[in-house]
UniProtKB/TrEMBL annotation:
Protein name per its UniProtKB record: CRISPR-associated exonuclease Cas4
Cofactor(s) required, per the database record: Mg(2+); Mn(2+); iron-sulfur cluster
Keyword Nuclease: yes
Organism of origin: Thermoanaerobacter thermohydrosulfuricus WC1
Protein family membership: Belongs to the CRISPR-associated exonuclease Cas4 family.
Gene Ontology biological-process annotations: defense response to virus
Keyword match Cytoplasm: no
Length: 165
């Protein structure tokens, strides 16, 4: 199958490798799941003032602003509990921009917690992103998804019914 690594896959990669395979193989999660619903509501209502969705290659950037001479891209997230995966997703976007000659900084927004975090693509994070892209490809090109291993995230995952039935 032909596929491109996306921000959503990068986010899943830090949570569950099985989810990466399911998502890439277009197995549709339970859309009525409350976690997905809350995420969608926040997506629609938060930061409306300066909100712009920018489509760039296979990347959808949540929020783009000019700050002094810098381009700032942002991602709006429901909860900082999944901060690591949100950070990896944003680093992936910064990496894709850099590949197109655009230097940007990132910021994560957690509106429910009134919290923000600056994210920069340091050389170390860049190496991490490149390694993750390769590993995602390895997972997705396998014939079957990685075996189901129950993790705390499962209870909030849209694939719960699929994995646990
Ligand atoms: S239910 Fe659990 S194992 Fe299945 S995709 Fe979601 S997080 Fe991964």
């Amino acid at each position: 199958m032909e596929f491109e690594v996306t921000g959503a896959l990068m986010q899943s990669y830090t949570i569950c490798k099985r989810q990466v395979w399911l998502m890439a193989h277009q197995i549709v999660p339970d859309q009525e799941h409350p976690y997905i619903e809350i995420g969608r509501l926040i997506d629609e209502n938060s930061y409306q003032r300066d909100r712009k969705k920018i489509h760039f290659e296979n990347v959808v950037l949540d929020l783009v602003r000019m700050e002094k001479d810098n381009i700032l891209i942002g991602e709006v997230k429901k909860s900082s509990k999944a901060e690591d995966s949100a950070k990896m997703q944003l680093l992936f976007y910064l990496y894709k921009l850099k590949q197109s000659g655009i230097t940007a900084k990132g910021q994560l927004f957690f509106p429910e917690e009134r919290k923000r975090e600056v994210v920069e693509l340091t050389p170390e994070f860049e190496r991490e992103v490149i390694k993750a892209i390769e590993e995602i490809k390895d997972i997705v090109y396998k014939e079957k998804p990685p075996a189901f291993i129950k993790i705390p995230y499962c209870k909030n995952c849209g694939y719960k019914e699929f994995c646990m039935s």
